[in-house]
Every structure is written in C-alpha cells, then in structure tokens.
Design goal:
single chain; mainly alpha; two-stranded antiparallel sheet
C-alpha cells in the first residue's frame, strides 16, 4: 500500500477519537472527539486514494459539491432540531447499498456498478455525517452531554481503540484500512450519536414499524424473485450456483442470500417480541410473520434458519413459565441431536464434512492456523483472509479464505487480547439490554432478539461487527436508558435505584 504510514497515523487518531466520543461526559471532550473522528476518517480515505479533490474543481464537480453540502446541511439542521430522528434515519439507511462504486477516474468519484454488484453503505454514511454535525452543533450550543452507560461505553471504546491500533502491526494494511474507513470508524460514530439521541415514546413505535416494514418489503421482493427467477443483485458464484442447482436462491435487495435472510430474521424477531408482549394487534403481526417466513424460505440460508430457531427458543424461554422452559430445553436438545444425526448420515453416505458445512470446516481450520501462529495480538484488522491463504500456501483468491465465524476472525486478527475485549463487549451489550427489559418488556425483548440473531448468524456468516444494525441495537439501548433517566425526577431515580 502506497500510503500505509498515513493510514496508520489516521488509525491512531481514530483510536483516540473513539475513546473520546464514547467516554465523553463534557462538551469539550465530545466536540474534540468528533473533530478528531472526522480527521481520522479523512486520513484513511486519502490513504486509500479516494480523495482526489482536483476532480471536484471542474464546473460539474463544483456544482455537485454545492448541492451535496446544501443537502447535508439541511439534513444536519433537521436532526439538530429533532434528535429523535437519528435512530430512525440510521435504521432506514442501514440495510441499503446502492449499486455505485468509488472510482477515482470519474469526475464525481463514483460510478454505477455492474454485473449485479452492490456498493458501499452510502445512505448510512450520509445519515451518520449529518448526525455527527447535528450532535456537534447541539453540543456547541450548550446542550448537556449525556454520558453513555458504562456497561457499553468502556468495552466499546476499548474494542474500537484496540482494533484501530492493530493497523500498526497488520499484515494486510490495505484491507485493514478499508475496514477502518468503511466500518469501524463510522460505527464508532453511530454508537456515539444514536446513544445521545432523544427517545420519546414515539421513537420506539416508529423503530418497530420501520423494522417490520423493511423486513416485509425484503420478503415480498424475495418472493417476487422466486416467482420470476430473476435477481436484481447477486455475486458471480451465486449466478453459477442457481444455474446448476435444483433450487433458486433469492437475494431481494441484497447481494447475498444469507444477508437477505439475516434482515428478514431481524424483522421476525421484532414481530415475535411484540406478539408476546401484546403491544400490537395479533392478527396483523401473525400475517407479517407468515409473509416474512415465506420470503426467508427462498433464501435457503442455513445460517438464517439457525438464527431464527435460536431466537424463537430464546424468546419462549425468557417469557415462559417453568413448563415452557422445560419444553424449550427439550426442543433445543432434539434440534441438536437432529443436526448431529443429519451430519452423521451424510458422512456415512460418503459426503465430505467440509461439503456438508458449505466449506465452513476448511475455513475454520485455515483460520485456526492463524490463531496458533499469532495468538497474542493477531495479524491485525483485516488480515485474516490473507494470512490464512499464505499459511495454506494456496493460489486461490484471498476472499475464499474469509472465516465466516466472527469470534474466530477476531481471535485471528486481534489475538487473545481482542477476543477478551469482544467477550467484554458482548457481556456489556447483554447487561445493557437486560436493563432496558426491566423497564420496558417489549423494547428489551426486541433488542435482545435482534442482538442474539446477529450474534448467532455471525457464527456461520461474517458480519456481527461489520453490520451497522449491531451498533444500532446497542446505541438504541444506551440512548433509551440515559434519555429516560434524564427525564426522571430525583425521587423517581431514587425509587428506581432501590428497585434495582
């Protein structure tokens, strides 16, 4: 990578910025962190060669810049005046990747992607940039800074900082820089801004409606693709697979059936939480679940089905009586035995275990070698696929060595230190969501179902830390708690502490 030193310097600044914005309790610390966060993002972008400002000096580029800044300013002003729109805007933008790609040869730095490919999370980046500007403006105008709950602020700050600093010893600096620029740094901003948004009762109803609406939309599009056997977006290997198999996997508005399945499972989890707590009318929720389940079926995503099963059993266990919990335990045991029996029968019939697991076994073994080679601090963020390929002495493309198992990827790239921070982050998230549930059963169950679905799905398909919904769930839990605590009187806070 030509500008590796620039990227590493930006990563150090990003690590400090993440600590400042997530642990800030005063105006100066928060504003300084937001400024440093923006500077670090700019440094990473420049190191990747995506920031040739001379392209914007032409007449068309200048006009586009003026229009873009005007729209961004309007969005920031809207969010500054109505901070409760921040989590809603993030949820609306999070799933979508427009089919555009960065191109330094283009006058406007972007071009339309072809061959069924999708681009970056551009709508989300726009919303996050507007949210950061709005938060900075409100802070400078004297708005009190709400501290994020310690249960999530400390582990998140530690994990973000260590992940960014790992670029200093990363084996694949370019891949690590891409991860920091397009995921890690923006998601630190996501948690910091959503965690400081306003959360009147309108917000949680709106978030539930948006979550159900998006999942239903994705399912309906998937059903339409199953009927017409035509996909909007897809990877080349999926096109080959669909052409040579008896079943047709759909992707809806995503590029991969498993990503599509993940978002539908999130919607089903929210619907089940609302159904259990009787927050919405039962029949419309049941109808939505039927539609979403039908759409999920045609993804043929085993990881999504596993996540849905775990979420359903977990919700029943969390809300049921002793008899229900015993039944859940029995069903979980039967499911495990059934899966083991299925694998055993396939092996007896002569199938390879790696084929049965869709190449996951070989990927796990390749990643485990990386962990054994660099156990303490890992090979640095983004370095696992390349390190696995080199240790396997293979000539296959690097993307074929992605582990698709988030805990194992963390162990390979960040070592035992990073894995411990990851576990701390998970524990903090569970603790935070449990606190929400004690105050609001429906919201707590919906957040818990989403967090669990994302975690389980990422055991078989990468994306827990790289999915903005993960950080949105944590941000909503943190922001909802601190906002409602700020609205309480001293007597109410005393009663809440006594009850806790």
């Amino acid at each position: 990578m030509e500008h590796a030193d620039t990227a590493q310097l930006a990563a150090v600044g990003g690590a400090l910025a993440a600590v400042l914005v997530l642990l800030a309790r005063g105006r100066f610390t928060l504003v300084a962190g937001l400024v440093l966060l923006a500077a670090a993002e700019a440094g990473l972008a420049l190191s990747l060669g995506t920031g040739p400002l001379d392209r914007l000096t032409s007449a068309g580029g200048a006009a586009a810049s003026v229009v873009g800044l005007a729209v961004l300013g309007g969005a920031a002003a809207l969010l500054a005046g109505r901070p409760w729109l921040v989590p809603v805007g993030v949820l609306l933008a999070a799933p979508f990747r427009p089919p555009v790609q960065f191109d330094t040869g283009s006058e406007f730095l972007v071009t339309i992607a072809d061959d069924g490919r999708l681009g970056r999370l551009l709508p989300l980046y726009f919303v996050l940039l507007a949210a950061v500007l709005a938060l900075g403006w409100r802070t400078l105008r004297g708005q009190p800074v709400r501290a994020l709950p310690k249960a999530i602020a400390y582990p998140a700050a530690a994990f973000f900082a260590f992940a960014m600093l790992s670029l200093l010893w990363a084996d694949d600096v370019e891949a690590g820089t891409n991860l920091l620029a397009f995921f890690t740094l923006p998601f630190a901003a996501l948690l910091a801004t959503v965690g400081r948004a306003d959360f009147p009762d309108l917000v949680q109803r709106t978030l539930a409606g948006v979550a159900l609406g998006l999942a239903a939309l994705f399912a309906l599009v998937g059903l339409g693709q199953a009927a017409t056997r035509e996909l909007f977006f897809y990877s080349p290997n999926l096109a080959v697979s669909n052409a040579n198999s008896d079943y047709f996997r759909v992707t809806s508005l995503f590029g991969d059936p498993s990503l599509y399945g993940r978002h539908v499972v999130l919607g089903i989890g929210v619907a089940l939480a609302l159904l259990i707590t009787h927050r919405w009318r039962s029949w419309p929720l049941v109808g939505l679940i039927v539609v979403m389940w039908a759409g999920l079926l045609f993804s043929y995503s085993q990881s999504s089905m596993a996540a849905l099963l775990v979420v359903t059993l977990a919700l029943a266990f969390a809300t049921g009586d002793r008899k229900v919990r015993r039944m859940v335990g029995l069903l979980a045991l039967l499911a495990a035995l059934g899966a083991a029996a299925y694998v055993a029968v396939r092996v007896v019939d002569g199938d390879d275990i790696n084929k049965i697991t869709s190449d996951r076994t070989e990927r796990v073994e390749d990643t485990a070698r990386v962990v054994e080679e660099r156990p303490v601090a890992g090979v640095g963020i983004g370095g696992q696929p390349r390190a696995s390929r080199e240790l396997a002495e293979s000539t296959q493309p690097t993307p074929t060595f992605v582990s698709h198992t988030t805990p194992l990827t963390v162990a390979a790239e960040l070592g035992v230190i990073g894995l411990a921070l990851y576990v701390w982050l998970l524990a903090g998230g569970v603790s935070l969501i449990a606190r929400v549930r004690r105050r609001d059963e429906a919201l707590g169950l919906a957040l818990g179902a989403s967090f669990l679905a994302l975690f389980v799905h990422a055991l078989f398909y990468s994306g827990f830390l790289e999915d903005p919904v993960t950080w949105l769930v944590l941000g909503v839990a943190a922001g909802w708690l601190t906002w409602h605590e700020a609205q309480m009187t001293a007597a109410e806070r005393a009663r809440a502490r006594a009850a806790a």
